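Standup notes
- HV: blocked on the assembly model, inputs below
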Amino acid sequence: MQKSYTRTTEGKRAREIFEERYDAHLRRTDRLFAYLMLGQWAAAILIAVVLSPYAWRGKTHVVHEHVYVAVVLGALISAMPVTLAFVRPGWVGTRMVIACAQMLWSALLIHLSGGRIETHFHVFGSLAFLAFYRDWRVYVPATVVVAADHLLRQMYWPESVYGILAPESWRFLEHAFWVVFEDVFLILSCIQSVREMRQNAAQQAHSEFTERLEHEMQIASNIQTALLPREIRVPGTEIAAKMVPATEVGGDYYDVVHADKGCFIGIGDVAGHGLKAGLMMLQAQSTIEALVRGRPGASPRDILTDANRVVFGSSRGRLGAHEHMTISLVRYHDDGRFVMAGAHEEALVWRAATGRCERLWVGGTWLGMVEDITSETVEKSFDLAEDDLLVLYTDGLTEAANGAGEQLGLDRLSAAVEKVARAPVEEVCDYLVALATKWAGGRQEDDLTVVVLRHVGLARQAAA
Amino acid sequence: MLDLAAPAARVGHGERWWRLAIALWAVAVVAGMALLWRYKLTPVAPNDPPSRWPADSTIERDPERPTLLMLVHPKCPCSRASLAELARLMGDTAGRAKAIALFVRPEGVPSGWEQSDTWQSASRIPGVVVRADDEEVEAHRFGATVSGYTLLYGVDGRLLYHGGITGARGHEGDNSGLRRIVSLIRDGHADADRSPTFGCELDDTGGALGRRADAEVVHTNH
């Protein structure tokens, strides 16, 4: 449905561009022919004045009729097309009149030049000029004028067009053939030109849409980035997080919201990525933050089940969308107690005492899938000792695949955490992201998010 | 297909009046073209020429081959077409006739008045003798009234053809007069012995010379 709407809108824009350009082209061509009409008028007067200024009777003379013809009839022929070209440019009637006038100019110039064979080339030149319009219909009146001229000449003055007094009946067809011969190619040229104009318009419309979409995606990306927590300072902890979207707008989610004596840490992943996934992520983020701020003492399970109702209601109920997301919500207490709910990835808990990672899985269901997830949502509690790490991540990290299709996996991730766990949390975060990126050979097919939390304890932190 | 109604729709109303104006314009243009045709196709009726070569003519007739005489007004722009046709005629007949272009010089004009650009054009036609007709003596003698008027006399001095060798006033191109003369010179016969003449009048007296006639009247003489 979205694609169909986009195509329709793009097609409409392509038509708009074509019509706008074609109209401008027609107006330009009308003006061009207006100047040509005036030029031909001037040329006709010049020809008449130079070649036949006077008609003579003995030793007396008067102005030659050719001069009057050039001035008066020339003005008459040019008046209407020139007026229309400036008063009603682009109108179909304007170019039809211009086509007629152009062919009449051929006839007049042939008269004024004394029937010189060279002047007859003006007929074919004029037909070629009319192709400037890229409108095959102008050849209809132009050809009718030529045909009418030939027909009348055949009836009343055959030698002026055929060179002989009694031409064969097929002579008309022979002359018509050459005009139609040129017409056919020029008409094909017009049709082809218009087709190319349409293609160019379609390409521009597509380009405009792509550009606009990219711009909008960039705006969405900026909004999403702006909404991420910037300085994460929670008493008793050191927290670092990093999100790398696969496209401009990611479908991953993480947030840290302060609560009484601790905080809530959320991490999730909307199915898919792109604008729609990003929108759902934003909705989940704002909903959870609002719920946590409204009820800072609530359990992660309660927050999630309430958030699910909101997300489900607006996503499925109002938007008719079918997106859903995995999510884990962790309640941290500054004494090292954690409560976790939600069915996201297994969390990693690195124990400073052993230097080893433990995996922590909490069952549940997706957010936004069904209206009520109360029965499926469970909680799990655990403690962290000082210097222990909690590592939360999205599947973009563990499912990063190398050229052979082999995923990074949880084992390699655990090993990597164990390797760098004693480093500052920012470095741990960067290391894990770099590891996944390197493993995938620089390619990134999914959004990637890591949150690393080290429990340092209030006392030690205060001392430091 | 093109939606060419769109630009038209943008120009607003009043189309009906424009269509009426265009129709009136078309009628005016057709009327103008018709007047032009009428002017171009209206010949000048000549006087009757002598049926035999005038004995008192100072122009020498060729006793061995037909003699063609064209009377030309030196300033007549229409006669350029007649001379162009004469050049074509000379090419077609390849010296089988003697050709003389006689440029009239009316009484009262200075000497050299007849040395116009058409004189120069005539001089460049191979085989054509160009000479002046002082005070239009020979023009009167041959009954010529209009520039481009051409006469063809046979070897026995008998008039074979008289009239123009253009199809319209100042209009180049094949025409009946040209074909008749060529036929007479080549084959000794033609379908008619005259054709209409188009051009400036040689004399300004308005009496014996230069009377306009309807083309129809002249054509009935064919």
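- HV (later): unblocked. Chain A is about 55% helix and 15% strand. The CA atoms of residues 18 and 135 of chain A lie 14 Å apart.
- Next: hand off to the docking folks.
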